[in-house]
Amino acid sequence: MKVGFNGLRGKEISLISIVLMSGTILLWSWEKTPGLSTFIPPQTPPLQLSSDHLVSGRSVQVLAPDPRLDEDGSSLAKKKTTNEQKEPHLERASLTVPAQSTSGENKGEDGSSYTEICNYAKGKWVPDNKRPLYSGFGCKQWLSGMWACRLMQRTDFEYEKLRWQPKDCQMEEFEGSKFLRRMQNKTLAFVGDSLGRQQFQSLMCMITGGEEKLAVEDVGREYGLVIADGSARPNGWAFRFSSTNTTILYYWSASLCDVEPIDVNNPNTDYAMHLDRPPAFLRQYLHKFNVLVLNTGHHWNRGKLNANRWVMHVGGVPNTDRKIAVIWGAKNLTIHSIVSWVNSQLPKHPGLKAFFRSISPRHFFGGDWNTGGSCDNTKPMSIGKEILEEESSDQGAASAVKGTGVKLLDITGLSQLRDEAHISRFSITAKPGVQDCLHWCLPGVPDTWNEILFAQI
Fold it and tell me: What is the rounded CA–CA span in Å between residue 120 and residue 71?
């Protein structure tokens, strides 16, 4: 049988004509009537971005529960913008172009929320005459005198007048009252070494503006932070702002692993350093925290371990693995262990935000702390003022948080540029040939760490 248009009968031709005319009228009506468009799902435009947009205010926003981190600790959403990024947990990816990038939650055109992608570790130091955020003379209630360089005869204070500006996005301005409102009925805990203690004291000064506050309660006993027999000070401090029921605490754990005496009856006993076990303090009190900031780094050297009589243990017994016995191997195992443990606890504590802070750089020149090393430079930004690298320079910390719910608080690169901001020779215990090029003058660089933390909370 011959098939074709000419082979159709008259009735069939009439029927086809009616169908074609109806379709034409329907399409014409849809174009003229916006309301009809709701019945036709819009197409999702393909992602077409250049590398210049990856960490700017004009960036790909991945609407997902928790964007996973790549090997360098940065979000996959910042690094992979092609179709090869096909994570099964990503519900939708869209291109958003906000007028100004902020760190808070925003609403997309469809009403769904998204968080701006901003690489806070990428940017530059800029002069700011509105700095510092508090007075090194005035914050005596919280700031240790040994870190208040204005009390230590230092005469140059240009290091206090710098502000960190992330590239292509605006970091939220820190305000003590805003911080307390955001942390109402919540607890923020710093757990780490003396650099963590500096960050803790910095935040207390930032919240109060360096002014005396009577409505702040010492709640250390709630966390077992009391002075033990024979000790000069407790293992940490905890304070509560009564106006918002906000608690800020610090617990000293230089290695971020559990340390316990091998023989409790021997005052000269060695201590088991359990590389694969979190500190007992964290195991006991994690459920009370809403924000946790971990750090470790500078106690990982043979001199510190020998002086503290720490003996490495793994699996509850003394370590016999030579690869772990070297300092970098032990440190790496511990960092991955503590991050993995915290990550395993996050489903049990859905209100907890956990951060691992990258290492704070040292600036000893011409030697180490005990061999004549110094950091006498007082000129800001003499090393440089800008960080453009996408990846963290603390690869160990970045690798540890990869694929976990623990976020990287990356402060290493931006702090590396600030060699003039250390305590240097302006120290309570200053001696000829001995300088502190590890700790920072306060006010100073740790204030910026807290600004970035505030922007990420």
Answer: 18
In degrees, rounded to 5, the angle at the alpha carbon of residue 421 between the alpha carbons of residues 415 and 422 is 95
Q: What number of CA atoms fall less than 13 Å from residue 132's CA on the CB side? A: 29
Tokens 């750090």 belong to which residue?
A: 295
Residue 230: what pLDDT?
79
Q: HSE on the CB side for 418, CA within 13 Å?
A: 30
| Contact yes or no for 162/440 (Cβ under 8 A) | no
Residues of the chain by 3-state class (helix, strand, coil), percent to 5:
30, 20, 50
Return the closest-CA partner of residue 214 out of 186, 237, 243, 238: 243
Among residues 169, 174, 46, 166, the alpha carbon closest in space to that of 116 is found at 169
By C-alpha distance, which of 372, 368, 373, 257 is closest to 315?
257
Q: What is the DSSP letter of 216?
A: E
Residue 239 CA neighbour count, 13 Å, CB half: 16
Picking from 207, 199, 200, 143, the residue whose alpha carbon sits closest to that of residue 174 is 207
Q: What is the pLDDT of residue 355?
A: 98
Q: How far apart are CA 452 and CA 194, in angstroms?
A: 19
Strands (E), 266-309: 271-274, 291-294
Contact 428, 144 (CB under 8 A): no
Count CB neighbours of 259 within 10 A.
18
Distance of CA 281 to the CA centre of its chain: 21
Query: What ranges in 224-296 are assigned the alpha helix state H?
Result: 280-285
pLDDT higher than threshold 90 for residue 167? yes
- The helix/strand/coil state of 356 is strand
Q: Which two tokens stand for residue 145?
A: 């005198």
Give 321-335 pLDDT, tens digit per residue. 999 999 999 999 999
Q: How many residues does the chain have?
A: 457
Q: What pLDDT, on a 0 to 100 scale, did the predictor assign at position 21? A: 54
Partner residues linked to 240 by β-bridges: 217, 247
Helix boundaries (H) for 84-222: 176-182, 194-208
CA 142, CA 357: separation in Å to the nearest integer? 22
Higher-pLDDT residue of 99 and 367 is 367
DSSP letters along 52-103, please? GGTTSSSEEEEESSS--B-TTSSBHHHH--STT---TT--EEEEE--SS--S
Q: Tell me the three state secondary structure of residue 60.
A: strand
Residue tagged 């002075």 (tokens): 227
